[in-house]
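Dear colleague,

Following up on Tuesday's group meeting, I ran the structure prediction for the two-component complex that the binding team flagged. I've pasted the input sequences exactly as they went in, so you can double-check that nothing got truncated or mislabelled along the way. The structure tokens for the whole assembly follow below. Feel free to forward this to whoever is handling the docking comparison.

Inputs:
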Amino acid sequence: MIEAIAALVGLLVIGAWLLLHHREPERDSRSRIVRRIDEILPQTQCQQCGYGGCLPYAQAILSGNAPIDQCPPGGPVVKRSLAELLGQSNIARLRLSDSEAVDQIVVIDESTCIGCTKCIQACPVDAIVGATKQMHTVIADHCTGCELCIPPCPVDCIDIVRLEPGLERWRWSMPTHLGSERRNHPRI
Amino acid sequence: MNRTLHAFKGGLKLASHKDQTRHIATRDICHPETLYLPIKQHVGMAAVPCVEVGQAVRKGELVARSQAYVSMHVHAPADGIVASLRDFPVIHPSGLQALCIELSVSERHDDDRLTARGANPADLMRLERHVIYDRIEQAGIVGLGGAGFPAHVKMHEGSLQHVDVLIINGVECEPYITCDARLMQEQAQDVVAGATLIRWLVEADACIVAIEEDMDDTRGALAQCKSDAFELIAVPAIYPAGSEKQLITVLTGLEVPSGSLPIDIGIVVLNVATVVAIYRAAAYGLPLTERIVTVAGDISMPGNIKALIGTPVQHVLDQCGGFDSATHRVLSGGPMMGIEILDPRAPITKVTNCLLVLERKLQPPASKACIRCGDCVPVCPIGLQPQQLFEASRSADVDEAQDLNLFDCIECGCCSYVCPSEIPLVHYFRYAKSSIESLDIDRAAADDARLRFERHKTRLSASESSDVDEQVSLADVSGLRVSELQNQVHDAIARARQRRKK
């Protein structure tokens, strides 16, 4: 009898201890939300929101200083996702139809480049390679099109190009036609 | 020989229309003057051209090299001269062009290697397995049933795990298509040799050659070869019985779990034309440069055609009686899953199994609102809820569509077929799938950019104490107001473009 009670009490104590110590710590929630906001932002680091990058903007949004619609490259997708996360609007769920973000990258006119490395220092995502007095070039897959490299260039050799939808970037569009072209086979 | 067959959920009994071409022997056509070889004819990364313009190539020579694990080589189907590397129409729902190698065929070159006797399976089985794998990879073989997955990758994955059953898929469940049936009749010896070889190669416990129950000629041809290497099983002709996962269910009663591959449950499925191509690659060293294409539908000389890869669709159709693009259209593939060929100059690729000519409807039936009849639910072979998926795709609800297992949809078209409101359901699902995929790609790119940004910042703060001057430009920029920054960008771009014009 005594052993049984002791065992039960022991289990209770262990359970209570586990409950108390394994609850999500309250103090982390703020940084968690900042991280979740940052995950939604497109990471172009373009500063068009007026903050020093995506993470500073995320922090500003959480502290209530910044509105959620200040991210041009993110477009409506980011706005909607932020609204959903922060409960700011009733247009909550993500819609496929508004995934229209700006698709652009920059290119360096390599014949004009003097190898000053100024753009390399300005690039927030390390998308430009080159060395002093050597030609620089933009790694197209890494470029976020943030335009931050353009003002520092002393010889204006950087240009913006729109990304054209090639076969790799092509995707099915919403059926617009009336009628089912899929049914090519007459019914029996 | 007495294997109990199982049934998969749903499916449709369709009019087969196969008699139009089933009894006509496969014929050769005169080769075109120019071949267009797309560098991407398969699932995975595009190959990289390894020839130069003006270079003379021999039949079977490598013209584009695979650069990744899931990618495939492309070979020259005939002797010729590389005329150009340029964008050219390809068979793709977008109607966009893709990079092709244009090959001017210099002369007709009959294949003399096939007449020479190749190694038989018993001789090949004395070789090391990796030698055979290497030959398959070098031959550029992809799944010829339509999916175009590189064959050596599939078999290599198979060799890493235990294979219970090797299924050789000769079930052409789509109406009109008979290229595999003809192949099995005319080249039964090669099918048997290939099945024997591949069974040894992947060390499968059992091997099944599956055909449709109404393919009597095929059954006869294969039964004549009398081999104990495989069981010959005829499955009921219910569309889509020839789809990989459905065929596995019919033959074994097993179901491939959502998000898994057949190899995860110990099964390898290969199309019968792929098996023949693998055998030829292993025995004769022949690269994949031609295939059998069914030409059917509203055309005067239908049949199965042996066509070189890269032959323009127009050329094939001209040899079969021609078609008028004003009144007719051409599908690549069957009537249920085929895609419309928007430009008939586009070339035949490794995965083109059928050219189906259909009359253009003057006024396609208008699609009406969903009346929630639920007819699409019992026909779905995967057991999805097409009407709910339709609502999720139409309202572009990402989470809902994924919760409903959108990505398990095989796009067989059964739901669109039975829909009384003529709703193009599969088109909606394709739209939703590709939108979600592109969102995922964007998200992965953003994660990558975040990582680089964080490393960039760490690096800067580490060098801050030692060298302050280096970050002058970055500090300058971040100090500016947004509008000023944008003005500076505009001015700089204007100056750069001005100078380039001069």
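The first strand of chain B starts at residue 27 and ends at 28.

Cheers,
M.
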